[in-house]
Each structure stands twice: as C-alpha cells, then as structure tokens.
C-alpha cells in the first residue's frame, strides 16, 4: 500500500546507511570480498549512491545507501530518498546507520518516494518498501505521508477538477472519514449569513463561492484552522498577465495544507477541539465582478477599500477569521498562498509565519528543526499599520509602494483575528523543481512543524 511500511519479514534485505566519512571503518568490519566489491563498484557513501552486495548463490546479501556528510544533508531534505530511487524493487530493513533524530524524517522521505500525481497520466510506482524500524512511530509517519500526498494531489489538480465545489467535496470526504461535523454556506446565502467579502470575491465565477466548515473533537484546547481556498485567481478586473496566471491553480494551497494538517490531527487523535474554515472561491472576470475603488463591508464591520482586485485572498480570509474569532479559540492559524513578497523574502522552501506570541514562535521553531520542515518568523511591524489605512475606509487591501507586502497583508489579517492567540503562514505550497521524495508540483509546507508544535502551543 502507498505511504505504508512493509510488515516485518525475514525476506527483507538488510540495508546499511553509510556516511562518507564512516565508510572505511564500516568496510574494516566486513569480509574481504565485501570490501573489495564495494570499492570495485566505486561506492563512496555519497548522497544518492546505492549498491547491492552479492552473497551466496548470486543473491543479494545486503544493500548500501550513501548518506554523505551532515553539511551535504543540510543542503536538502530526505537525503536517504536519493538512494531509494536507485535501489531495485524489493523490501528492505535498516541494519545499521541512520541514528538519531533524522531517523523518522528519513523514513518519512522513503514513504513519500511512492508519490506520483497520476490522475491524468497513469504511472507505475516502483515497489521499494521499507520495514518500519522498531524505534520509530510508524503510525505517525504513515499518517503524515498520507496527508502530504493528499495536499499534493489537491494542489496539483487543475481548477477544471478542483473548483470551489470540488474543494468542498474533498473537505466533506475528509470530514466524513473521521466522523467530523460538516457544513457549508453557498452562493447568496453568504450574504444572508454575513460573509460579504467572500461573496464579493467569488460572485463573478460560474461556480458559486462558499464557506466550508467542519468540526472534530469534543475535549481539549480549541484549535481553529483557516485556509485560503482561491481555486483560481485571474486577478479579477486587475487581470494578471498570462505568465503570472500559470500556477494559479495552486492559489488554494493554504486550504490544501489546512486539510492536510487536519487529516494528521484527526488520524493521530490529537486532544484538541478542531474547527476548520475554508473560504472557497474563484476570482474571475464578469459583469458582476468586484471593482478597483469599491468599498466592501466585512463580517466584522470594518470597511475595506479595494485598490487591487488581485489582493483578494486577504478579503476572503478576513470574513473567515472574523467568524473564527467569535468563538475565542485557544489558538487560531491561517495558511495562505498570499503574497509574492514572501517568496522574494525567503524563497519557496521556507514558510514565513507571523505571531505576537513569543512562546508559540519558539515552540514552532524548535519543532520545525526537529522534523526538518523549515519556517521563519516575520514581524507584525506596528509602524506599518498606517500603510493599510487609506483614509476613505477603515482598511486598504493593497497599499501603494510595494514595500513589505507580506507584512502589510499579515497586519490586515490580524485586524480580523480577534484578541486571542493567532499565527499566520504566508506559504508557497509548490515545489519548483524535483528533489528526492519531493517531485515538482504541489507541496505541504509547515504542517509537519505545526503537527509537532500544536499540542504544546495550544495547551500553554
């Protein structure tokens, strides 16, 4: 089965994971013919190297995987996965090497080697399976791998098959699988139930805008996750150029990552009261599209001047955050593919986040390092508040000048998040080039770090 470890079996081939600097010492402990074979085949313990060592009767006796050096591993993720891609099909069991905190991360990388987006073009993944080491939490790693695969599938699917209605169906399916209570508000009912900005952004699409919600868990801290579900972003009347529109199927990456995090939480039964809110829209062009210069009134009552219809994500999130804040959760988290400024600041690999809570930030940073899921704290810089106050309305959705775009967007969202503990993630949700266990395409970002950190943050 994809994203699952192989059951223990005597037929599993022993696998030795060897750092380059440790190779000579390892060879000294082997039979002369093994050492000769390894040297003859040029195995040097480099990342990405793999080698079968023959035994009696011409059968493989063991397999070797290169693990490079700590410095080389720091330049990427899932170093063992680079060798997995070169191992023959079969079942393997770790025999030596790969000790310490990297063990679970590398086992996760192995499972993620199974991933292939094959909805439109069938692919045949190689059956290279790993027996779960006894000292790892196999169920947790499997849950994380399956959730990551779900995130990738959601983001990779084009809007023709992942519009607001299909995103709702995916959320409903996840909720049903875990016994969560699901509901949604669709179309003009958004106006009746006071979600005016979600309606305004999505009303020009042929697929009605909606607010998706589900709840799970009866006890523990209240945790609310809010994900931006802009299933395609043309830019609206401030139309994007063609090159900027190419990847806009991924503008629901915040929603996909929130669903992935929720899947992990529910599968692993974290002791929280979970609430998931996803404003799902398509930002399209039509005669009823919202316009530059319009002033919208939000659920919270704050008015927003529209200076660019391409800054729509913060508008739909604002109504959802206002709803979430009404219950005063112990922790509220928003995730969104919100600004290009965040990519300029930290690139595609790091998830920038904002919070006023130093303890939460420290816990998250520690968790991110432990699970190799990089994040970076950005400032809610108060002097920039005036940039989002245009004068004609309470707020401006697209301040002029172009400076600090990610920070001003985060400050905008904070106005709607209430007075409780709040964290905002301005993610990319896309892997721009293929790496071991990380093919080009949709990607989970910061959700492994959050899974690790949430119990401590929510309970503190």
Automatic annotation (TrEMBL):
GO terms for molecular function: manganese ion binding; metalloaminopeptidase activity. GO terms for biological process: proteolysis. It holds the Pfam family Peptidase_M17. The keyword Metal-binding does not apply. Residues 308-315 form the Cytosol aminopeptidase domain. The keyword Membrane does not apply. Signal peptide: none annotated. GO terms for cellular component: cytoplasm. InterPro entries: Leucine_aapep/pepB, Macro_dom-like, Peptidase_M17_C, Peptidase_M17_N_1. Keywords: Aminopeptidase, Hydrolase, Manganese, Protease. Transmembrane segments: none annotated. Belongs to the peptidase M17 family. This is Leucyl aminopeptidase. It comes from Seohaeicola zhoushanensis. The lineage of its organism: Bacteria, Pseudomonadati, Pseudomonadota, Alphaproteobacteria, Rhodobacterales.
